[in-house]
Design goal:
The chain is an alpha+beta fold. Helix content is about 15%, strand content about 45%. It is built from 2 helices and 5 strands, in the order βαβαβββ. It has a 5-stranded mixed β-sheet with strand order 1-3-4-5-2.
Length: about 100
Amino acid sequence: MSYWLVKSEPEAYSWEQLEKDKQWDWTGVRNFAARNHLKAMKKGDEVLFYHSNVGLEIVGIAKVAKEAYHDPTSDEPAWVVVDLKPYKKLKKAVSLDAI
């Protein structure tokens, strides 16, 4: 099993929203290095969910529910998504300073 990190601004998509949705396709990644990491993710891998810009902390652990497939928000075949599902909310968020 591998471990990954994804980031999202909480006002765009928060950990709480992932918990409500139960599963979410991680769309919109347009960075080649990040895309390659998405392609390497395997079902069951654990993913640290980081709130960027506001909070600057890891707030939960998700799991890869579905491996990489074409990003429906792009017409270009190069871009992919994975589906994530919430696994565990951290009792105490972990800040960058703590890391």
